[in-house]
Structures are given as C-alpha cells and as structure tokens.
Amino acid sequence: MTPTPGHERDAAHEWTGGAYLEHQWLWRFLPAPPGSARSFVFRRRDVDGLPRFYVVSDREPVAPSAHWQVQSKPYAPSLAVGDRLTFDLRANPVVTTRNAAGKSARHDVVMQAKTQLLKAQKLTRWADWQTPDRPTLPDLVRETCGQWLQARCQRLGIALVDESLHIEGYEQHRGKNGELRFSTVDFSGQLQVVDVDALRQALFGGVGHAKAFGCGLLLLRPIG
Q1: 200 neighbors 64 (Cβ within 8 angstroms)
Q2: Which of these, 164, 170, 153, lies nearest to 208 by C-alpha position?
Q3: C or N: which end of the chain has fewer Cβ atoms within 10 Å?
Q4: b or e along 80-100 (b: 16 or more beta carbons within 10 Å of the residue's beta carbon)?
Q5: Domain ranges of the chain
Q6: What number does CATH give the domain 84-222?
Q7: What tens digit of pLDDT does each residue of 162-195 get?
Q8: Long-range contacts of the stretch 68-76 (C-beta < 8 A, 24+)
Q9: This prediction's pTM
Q10: Within 10 Å of residue 185's Cβ, how many Cβ atoms?
C-alpha cells in the first residue's frame, strides 16, 4: 500500500498517522462485516519519507480511493523442514507477571530487566548506577530481547542461526500523557524451519503482542 504517484498530498490528508490510529485506518483497505475480528498483521516502513505498509490478511485489500494504490498477491509460502531463510520482524517483547493479588500485567522486557538489576544493586534510578559493571542499553536490549525471541522459537516452528541475529531499533512509544504504552524492537537474521505448520501459523497470525500497532509481521525471504 503506497500513495499513488502525483496524489501524495491527497493521500497524506486521508492517512491517519500515528501508531494508535493506523490499525483502524488500515481497516478501510480490508472491508469486513461489522463486528469482524482482526484478520491481518502489518508492518509500516517509510520509503523516501512516504509510508508503505506490508500486510498479510485473509481478505484481499482494496484501495479506498484513487489516492492510494494497492499491490497484492496470494500468499502461500512454500516451506519445508530444514529450509534456511532470512527473516525480519518488528516485535513488542514483553514479559507477563502477577502481583500478590494474582492480577497479571505485561512489562517491557528491557525495563523489567532494569528493575531487577537495580533491585540487586539496591538502587532506585538507573542514573545512580555509576560503576563499570552497569550494562549499556544496547547490550541490555540485545540480551533481553534475544532471550525473548529465543524462548518463542519452538512455538514459532523455527531455530535461530545465532551468529546471524541482529537486534536494533529499540523504541518506547508513549501516550499523550507521556506514559509508556508499548515498546518495539527490530529483529533480523537467519532461521531454520523446524515445524512447517507452526511457522505458517506465525506467518498468518503474527508474533507476540501489539499487533494493532504494527508489530508481529514475520517477513521471510530466501537466502542469497
């Protein structure tokens, strides 16, 4: 989905920017009966300053106006156990905890790790940790998010080629009042197919939480 050449200004007026509204806006391209459940996962990438959306859906998209153009094709990936593929994934790595009352809550894995490390150091603020053993944020992101993805490999039907894994682009997305709403991380590298059915489910259903905010679409392509 990209703006039609020559219609960029009109497309910009129609486009509802921002992670919290893009999901609702994409519904216009995937019309469904009222009350239908979400049946798509998507990823936004900006190209030359213009938004481009990659979508996997069980419904064929249609352009809601002449200001947008849609390119679609049947999605039936050919997979076999043992295949090696490159992958790209934007995800929302979280851990679920329960309080004393049994109420569950999701936490950003990086922030949760910071909390645990500070507790071990008997500190309350990250800035107060001034000794050389304090991990850098990039190192903490790579460790915690790498563990998060590795822990999900079996249910995703994949095995990671560890030396190929790249983790970058950690970003915290905040609401209007400045509160942390969700975080995103970009993963890329190589994987090996272990369970075709499980991987196919991940490709169509997405990975992790925050799918309404553009997380979870697992993009695959052949190596080379």
Answers
A1: no
A2: 153
A3: C
A4: eeebebbbbbbbbbbbeeeee
A5: 2-69, 84-222
A6: 3.30.70.1210
A7: 889 999 999 998 777 767 788 999 999 999 999 9
A8: 68/1, 68/2, 68/3, 68/4, 68/7, 68/11, 68/14, 68/29, 69/1, 69/2, 69/3, 69/4, 70/1, 70/29, 71/1, 71/2, 75/203, 75/204
A9: 0.87
A10: 26
